[in-house]
């Protein structure tokens, strides 16, 4: 009779095999994704893409650029450079929760790099995984063979459909092609411990539930998180605080005690990069969801009108409700509703903080939505920088009008509901002034409101 640890170890292996089967075959979930998105007006697999990887591939095919080979890292540095992704964004995940799980372990973590429009994953001796954001379609998933090409052989990104969508289009991604950050309890090999469960991580998640299966470098005072450690299957995870002292694996600035950091582009898995990535992935998913649902609602209205011979002026009330239902969660995400509060100062170590802030669009007073607070909350001015993103600008006019109207109602205190009580009068004024000074397509009533004060 096997002991409990052996039993769960074997069960973890079986789970890993099952996960690998789903990812590699696209079974079950991916079929549902095809059924949901492969018709008008979305046409996820057949629509022309304009995401950053598509544009990069066009430049490669046209001879406008090349990818330099590096004897240590392969094409990874060149891919990051072309996609405008800083190595300072590097984060490291060692849980076996990727389709390359056989190459991932606490000794050989997977890297994740990200910029505004793309995410790049890399494992030692494995393929490069890339996701880039198409303004109309959301996440587009690719793999890239990281072996040296012969001279004149153009490198090619292979689009993956079902392989990735089996996980990356689910309730964890707002049921659209998108991204998720997971926190689990990994065992000593990196396998998720089945009886431990896990968490889908967003900017609303308390730090106490974040980063299980990740390395975390940086300081965070007396706050604790699940990162930088493995767990034993025998633990009572409902009473974890009594069994494990999480403070012993926090506030780590040197990860070399866990694995050989020299085998990576940087020795960091920056805590601030993790915080920003969790906000960005969640909000991007909601932008894609708002886009999809608006287009589907309007398309359905038009199909109904054509089928019944009715002429509908403007939007039907049912269509308006569908748009509002998809738009309100996006408004709340943009304005950082229910954000988990920081109770100690957070400080990164990779230089990501400085690079992220420096890239911000600034108003005439020098303020930017990329300015970070990192003492009680993530952003100094609690409105997401994703209002400047290509995907936000590409929202259907009906959805963008709704979002702009709702934000205006909040910042002018027309809406004084408790949902937005975390925003002080100073916050509201700062957000309104920054947006009116940096966004050119705001409705006229925004500017009139400021001028009339």
Structure commentary:
The protein is an alpha+beta fold and 453 residues long. It has a domain at 4-271. It has 13 helices and nine strands. The chain has helices at residues 4-25, 29-37, 52-61, 76-82, 162-168, 240-243, 271-308, 317-334, 352-358, 390-393, 397-411, 425-438, 444-451; strands at residues 91-93, 110-114, 118-122, 128-134, 138-144, 158-160, 181-184, 198-201, 214-215. The protein has a seven-stranded antiparallel sheet, with helices on both faces.
Topology at a glance:
Elements: H1 4-25, H2 29-37, H3 52-61, H4 76-82, E1 91-93, E2 110-114, E3 118-122, E4 128-134, E5 138-144, E6 158-160, H5 162-168, E7 181-184, E8 198-201, E9 214-215, H6 240-243, H7 271-308, H8 317-334, H9 352-358, H10 390-393, H11 397-411, H12 425-438, H13 444-451
Mean pLDDT: 90
Oligomer: single chain
* Span of the ends, CA to CA: 77 Å
The helix tally amounts to: 13
Task: Flag low-confidence runs.
Answer: 1-34
Q: Please tell me what the overall shape is.
A: globular
Main β-sheet: number of strands, strand sense, barrel status? 7 strands, antiparallel
- Largest sheet, spatial ordering of strands: 6-5-4-3-2-1-9
- Write down how many β-strands occur, each being a DSSP E stretch of 2 or more residues: 9
The SSE order reads HHHHEEEEEEHEEEHHHHHHHH
Radius of gyration using CA atoms only: 23 Å
Q: Helix share of residues?
A: 25-40%
Strand proportion, as a percent range, falls in 5-15%
Protein structure class: alpha+beta
């Amino acid at each position: 009779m096997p002991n409990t640890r052996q039993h769960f170890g074997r069960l973890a292996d079986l789970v890993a095999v099952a996960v690998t089967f789903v990812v590699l075959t696209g079974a079950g979930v991916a079929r549902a994704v095809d059924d949901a998105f492969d018709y008008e007006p979305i046409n996820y697999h057949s629509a022309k893409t304009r995401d950053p990887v598509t544009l990069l591939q066009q430049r490669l095919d046209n001879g406008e650029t090349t990818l330099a080979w590096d004897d240590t890292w392969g094409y990874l540095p060149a891919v990051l450079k072309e996609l405008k992704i800083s190595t300072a964004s590097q984060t490291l995940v060692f849980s076996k929760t990727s389709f390359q799980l056989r190459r991932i372990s606490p000794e050989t973590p997977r890297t994740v790099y990200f910029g505004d429009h793309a995410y790049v994953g890399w494992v030692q001796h494995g393929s490069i995984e890339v996701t880039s954001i198409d303004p109309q379609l959301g996440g587009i998933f690719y793999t890239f063979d990281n072996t040296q090409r012969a001279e004149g052989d153009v490198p090619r990104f292979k689009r993956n459909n079902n392989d990735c969508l089996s996980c990356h289009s689910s309730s964890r991604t707002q049921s659209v092609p998108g991204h998720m950050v997971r926190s689990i309890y990994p065992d000593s090999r990196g396998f998720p411990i089945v009886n431990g469960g896990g968490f889908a991580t967003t900017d609303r998640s308390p730090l106490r539930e974040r980063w299980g299966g990740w390395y975390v470098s940086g300081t965070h005072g007396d706050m604790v998180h699940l990162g930088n450690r493995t767990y034993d299957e025998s633990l009572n995870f409902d009473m974890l605080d009594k069994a494990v002292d999480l403070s012993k694996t926090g506030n780590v600035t040197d990860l070399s005690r866990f694995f050989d950091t020299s085998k990576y582009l940087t020795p960091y898995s920056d805590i601030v990069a993790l915080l920003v990535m969790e906000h960005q992935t969640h909000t991007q998913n909601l932008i894609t969801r708002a886009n999809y649902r608006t287009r589907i609602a309007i398309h359905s209205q038009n199909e109904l009108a054509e089928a019944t011979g009715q002429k509908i002026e403007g939007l039907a009330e049912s269509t308006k409700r569908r748009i509002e239902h998809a738009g309100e969660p996006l408004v709340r995400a943009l304005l950082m509703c229910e954000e988990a509060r920081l109770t100690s100062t957070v400080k990164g170590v990779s230089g990501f903080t400085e690079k992220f802030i420096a890239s911000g669009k600034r108003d005439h007073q020098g303020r930017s939505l990329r300015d970070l607070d990192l003492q009680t909350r993530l952003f100094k001015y609690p409105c997401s920088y994703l209002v400047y993103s290509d995907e936000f600008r590409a929202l259907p006019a009906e959805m963008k009008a709704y979002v702009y109207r709702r934000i205006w109602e909040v910042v002018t205190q027309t809406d004084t509901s408790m949902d937005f009580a975390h925003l002080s009068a100073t916050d509201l004024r700062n957000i309104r002034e920054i947006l009116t000074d940096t966004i050119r397509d705001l409705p006229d009533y925004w500017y009139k409101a400021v001028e009339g004060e």
